[in-house]
């Protein structure tokens, strides 16, 4: 199994280090043709407008969209989640290009700027049921986005409570968000839609490997047979 990690900008080294810890080959992907030699792809966190400009410069968007359409597993973390979303909103969105495929609306900087970064315990019963361990995952949120709405084919894997003043602030449209009777409102921070996985937080910055092992199972479920070509060597 070979897992590609989009290596234009952001925390790609950290993902490759986790894959190595798990005994899986992770390779840096910077060119469209390299996607032919990986079973799945991680799009890391970083800064999504910068990443989009680099992806455009390297003419990667058509190949990334094709990869998603072929049903290959793709996991977007943070800026990677923004890349995968069909719709993005929030300050400085500026019409940046998206890969799309994930039927959701993402707010790019929902939780605020860098200094409003935080850690929080997330309830992750589905991940714990599949990967073992406690039903809680410590999420690291760095200038994090949040998912404001999802289509019917999207499975929600984690939510986080938000204060009602944030919820009510004028640039948000949170219609359809779940009401949590204990703490008011919630936004979605992890989802799966078929071959697509997306998290608003950074599992690669923790010692808890369960999101990676979950994604590796998605990759092995698709199977080695899905490797499009082995003729072009992958740079690593
Ligand atoms: N909110 C950031 C963006 O718009 C993403 C932050 C991150 O990836 N840690 O790109």
Question: How would you summarize what this structure contains?
Answer:
The protein has 236 residues and is α/β, with parallel strands linked by helices.
Principal-axes geometry comes out as globular
Stretches where pLDDT falls below 50 for ≥5 residues?
A: 173-178, 225-236
CATH architecture: 3-Layer(aba) Sandwich
The CATH H-level homologous superfamily: Class I glutamine amidotransferase (GATase) domain
CATH fold label: Rossmann fold
Termini Cα gap: 15 Å
Protein architecture, described:
There is one protein chain. With 236 residues, the chain is an alpha/beta fold. The chain has a single domain, classed as Class I glutamine amidotransferase (GATase) domain (Rossmann fold, 3-Layer(aba) Sandwich), CATH 3.40.50. Helix content is 25%, strand content 30%. The strands form three sheets. Strands 1, 2, 3, 4, 10, 11, 12 and 13 form an eight-stranded mixed beta sheet that branches. A three-stranded mixed beta sheet has the order 5-6-9. Helix 1 (12-21) links the parallel strand 1 and strand 2 (25-29). Helix 5 packs across helix 7. It is globular. Glutamine (GLN) is lined by residues 45-48, 78-79, 82, 108-109, 142-143, 145. GO terms for molecular function: glutaminase activity; lyase activity.
Key phrases:
binds glutamine, Rossmann fold, alpha/beta, 3-stranded mixed beta sheet, single chain, 8-stranded mixed beta sheet, 236 residues, 13 strands, 7 helices, disordered C terminus
